[in-house]
Amino acid sequence: MHSALIRGFLALLAAGAAVAAPQTVRDSDVCTFPRIRRPWHKLDDKEKKAYIDAELCLMSTPATLGLRASRTKFDEFQSVHVLKMEIAHFTGQFLPFHRLFVWAHEQALRDECGFTGTQPYWAEELDVGAFSKSILLDPVLGFGGDGIGPDRCVRDGPFANYTNPLGPGFDITDHCINRQVNDTLTMTAAPTVVEGCMNMPTFLTFWSCIENRGGPHSAGHSGVGAQMSNPISSPGDPLFYLHHAWLDRIWSKWQLKDPEVRNRDMGGNNRANLSSRVPPPGVTPVNLTRPADIPEPLIVGDPGNVTTLNHLLYLYGLVENRTIGEVMDPSKVLCYGYD
């Protein structure tokens, strides 16, 4: 683990010199035909099975990056989220980081497991007040249903037998994927709430509307509950990626309203004051204090405490590090769009 972190540290130092000026787009980054992401509700049975099979493949592919407690490639993504927690939430990089993070997951499905589709998203506005009845929780062509028993373990569907080694929070424990669905806590995915965010005039007001208490970000996490309601180890539930793809779609739609301005509109703090955060209703508080065995995450490319386009998004080897500026327009370097 320590050797991998040292390699990552050296890579960050090398990258720091490269982010002093805006980066140019390399020939290999030119996108001709962006892949189009679609909602789970519109996938046919064959497409749903292909995605589920690819996720199961990640869960059976051995880890290679030496990251904390990771046994599989699926675990490595969760580990990176744990390592980045305190600088990737309630900071300016929240939306760009999760854009690159979900894209990295999509690339792993393709590169490691032969997936030929695109990352689907959960159109949560269609399931407001009724997550418990969503087709995403179907045990056959979905992600399994609600948790049961004292541990709220998911006992049906394709992921019922997966043992996750990370979480809750910063803990390292073997446990099931668990859920505690609460339909009442899904109301922040309502079209009126989303539209309110879409009407925000600047990145700072839009980002705040999305992430803060009462915004769309809390719907998928609090509504699914248990593992998903944990801000640190939530990628242990595969639904995480469909939830954040939905949030990314909302951001992309907001950007497309004025791309010349909004594809460069960035700001916010670099580090959050997590001690002042109060969890949404129904969410069990977790210890947000970084334990001693997790190195403090580095901030590269942004002096002071203001997030800029030069801020380096580093993912500990999951994919190539990128600046925020490089991921602002997903149709370019990342080469995808939405239906």
From TrEMBL:
Pfam family, one: Tyrosinase
Keyword vocabulary terms for this entry: Copper, Metal-binding, Signal
Gene3D superfamilies reported in the protein's UniProt record: Di-copper center containing domain from catechol oxidase
Coiled-coil spans in chain: none
Keyword hit for Cell cycle: no
Keyword Secreted: no
Domain Tyrosinase copper-binding: 89-106, 237-248
Molecular-function GO terms, alphabetical: metal ion binding; oxidoreductase activity
Disordered: annotated span: 262-284
Signal peptide segment: 1-20
Superkingdom in the source lineage: Eukaryota
InterPro entries from the UniProt entry: Di-copper_centre_dom_sf (IPR008922), Tyrosinase/Hemocyanin (IPR050316), Tyrosinase_Cu-bd (IPR002227)
Protein name: Tyrosinase copper-binding domain-containing protein
